[in-house]
Each structure stands twice: as C-alpha cells, then as structure tokens.
Amino acid sequence: MGLDYDDQNIFARILRGEIPNDTVAENEHALAFRDIAPKSPSHVLVIPKGKYVSFDDFAANAPVEEIAGFMRLCAEVIAKEGVGLDGGRGFRAITNAGPDGVQEVPHFHLHIMGGRMMGPMVSLRD
Ligand code: 5GP
C-alpha cells in the first residue's frame, strides 16, 4: 500500500456495507454506484475495493489485476449507462486528487458523467 488511508472515509464504509449505495455494477476488484448528488443525468462513481487514497496512489501501487478489474468495470458502467461511443453520445471521466484537485472523499474514485453536454473541461472559481 502507498499513502496513509483513512478507514472511516465514506467509501470505505460503503464497501463494508455500513452505508447503503445504489449499485450499478460490481466485480471482484471494484464497485460502481450512483453519486448521491448527481451533476449530470448519469453520474456514476467507480471505486477499487482496495485501499487507495487517490488516482496516483492506485496507479503506482495497485496490482495489475486490480487495475484491469477496475478498468473493465468502468467499461461495463459506460456500456450500461448507454453513454459509450458504441451508440451513445459520450461522457466525461474525472478524478479529483488532494487539495488542489478538490477531492472530498479520500478513497480513489472515477466520476463517469454523461447524459448531457458536459461543457468546458474546467470552470475555475476562487
Ligand atoms: P470528490 O470531490 O471526492 O471527487 O467527489 C466525491 C463525490 O462523492 C461527490 O460527487 C459526492 O456527491 C459523492 N458522495 C459523497 N458522499 C456520498 C455518499 O454517501 N454516497 C454516494 N453515493 N456518493 C457520495
């Protein structure tokens, strides 16, 4: 494992079944569920089941099988939500990391968002 991980973060509690979630897809290595405050008609969070704080932690430290399992679950979500380029209109995949990335939950997650035009990539505010 890489960075210090807080076992009490909300996604750790979801993984332990302590907090309910609206599951979209799941496999051995990852879980996908709907964001509680969706910013687009389709807004799904994909998280690894392992304890990784952020994308850089996951990319550097997860075993390749876990990375593959995570990526395949992302593909499954994109297909299920009908936003992939195989018939759909596309999507945006975002991950926030640390204070400058404005990461709220310190368990790595990818936001997969679609169902509307997503607008400019970044809108800066103070
Ligand atoms: P971050 O800013 O860390 O990239 O995004 C965290 C996301 O988690 C936010 O979009 C927020 O709405 C979502 N979130 C926070 N708490 C919960 C929760 O208890 N359940 C679900 N499904 N989503 C949550």
Automatic annotation (TrEMBL):
GO molecular function: catalytic activity
InterPro entries per the UniProt record, alphabetical: Histidine_triad_CS, Histidine_triad_HIT, HIT-like, HIT-like_sf
Domain HIT residues, every copy: 10-123
Classification via Pfam families: HIT (PF01230)
Active-site positions on this chain: 109 (tele-amp-histidine intermediate)
Position of sequence motif Histidine triad motif: 107-111
Name of the protein this chain belongs to: HIT domain-containing protein
Organism: Paracoccus alkanivorans
